[in-house]
TrEMBL record:
Gene Ontology cellular-component terms listed: plasma membrane
Organism: Pedobacter suwonensis
GO biological process: glycolipid biosynthetic process
GO molecular function annotations of the record: acyltransferase activity
Major subcellular location class: membrane
Alphabetized UniProt keyword annotations: Acyltransferase, Cell inner membrane, Cell membrane, Membrane, Transferase
InterPro entries the UniProt entry points to: LipA_acyltrans (IPR004960)
Official protein name in the record: KDO2-lipid IV(A) lauroyltransferase
Length: 291
């Protein structure tokens, strides 16, 4: 009961904070960066190890620059996510612009469902809201529920603004069956490691043995729904652009793991180009392959 009331108080405070304009929230973000990086040293060891192992061609000085840029962006990202509670459609449309979306919409207009592949790169949460606004079809973001049920309910409600229909990972197949006969978009963030007992495919990702989720490949090969990679570009603070890149338009014709390798290599290129916008603080490589 106490935990529930504390959670509700936290939600009240976050909702109040969300009423402030982004210009003010970014001032808080600047202060949060200093606290996260220099005072609390939030996951500094994890981030440093990830960067050193994933970017072995960079000098230590370059790694330190990327590290600080990551924490500065992470602080801004936190307050951008807080702002989701009150952000308007007009604000999202101004700050999160979709390019090359015509081909995706043409499939949907013909009654063909599509699969969206993305990653925890840039502001993926605003991206979820943006998809709901930019395409004429039901959008089903696949997500992992939070362990705190009060926060999970609140965050799911926030993410569901503008027509999104969030689906817990384990309910994906059921949702696919329920959406048959109606054009839809299922979006996947495929850069997080599967659970240890679900690590069935390993490849080299960012210079390290990495287990990759197979969900989008399995669904694509079963349904032959085309896959588009939504590539997020950070233009400047609070402004983004998304390239809707056709990744695989005929999944049924691919070999096993070909789709998984396609989106893995695509993400590698994105990260190597601007590494500071990927989520380096998560423990992506905590599991090792068992030979």
């Amino acid at each position: 009961m106490i935990k529930t009331w504390i959670s509700r108080l936290g939600i009240f405070l976050l909702s109040t904070l969300a009423l402030l304009p982004l210009s003010v929230l970014y001032i808080f973000a600047d202060g949060a960066y200093l606290l996260l990086y220099f005072v609390f040293r939030y996951r500094r060891e994890v981030v440093r190890e990830n960067l050193l192992n994933a970017l072995p061609d960079r000098t230590l000085q370059e790694i330190l620059i990327i590290e600080k840029r990551f924490y500065r962006y992470l602080a801004s990202l936190v307050f951008e996510i807080v702002k989701m509670q009150s952000i308007s459609k007009q604000e999202i449309e101004k700050r999160f612009v979709f390019k090359n979306k015509k081909q995706v919409q043409e499939y949907l207009d013909r009654g063909q469902s599509v699969l969206i592949c993305s990653a925890h790169y840039g502001n993926w949460e605003w991206g979820t809201l943006g998809i709901g606004l930019n395409f004429r079809a039901d959008h089903y973001p696949i997500y992992k529920p939070l362990s705190n049920p009060v926060f999970d309910h609140w965050f799911k409600k926030v993410r569901s603004k503008f027509g999104n229909k969030l689906i817990a990972m384990r309910q994906t197949m059921r949702a696919l069956q329920a959406s048959k006969g109606k054009p839809s978009m299922f979006s996947f963030g495929n850069d997080q490691a599967p659970a240890k007992d679900e690590s069935h495919y390993w490849t080299n990702f960012m210079h390290q043995p990495s287990s990759i989720q197979l969900g989008i490949e399995k669904i694509a090969m079963r349904t032959n729904q085309p896959i588009f990679y939504f590539k997020v570009n950070v233009l400047k603070r609070g402004f983004y652009e998304v390239d809707c890149v056709p990744l695989c338009l005929n999944p049924a014709e691919t070999a096993p793991f070909e789709i998984t390798e396609l989106h893995t290599r695509f993400l590698e290129k994105i990260i190597n180009a601007q590494p500071e916008y990927w989520l380096w603080s998560h423990r992506r490589w905590k599991y090792k392959p068992q030979y």
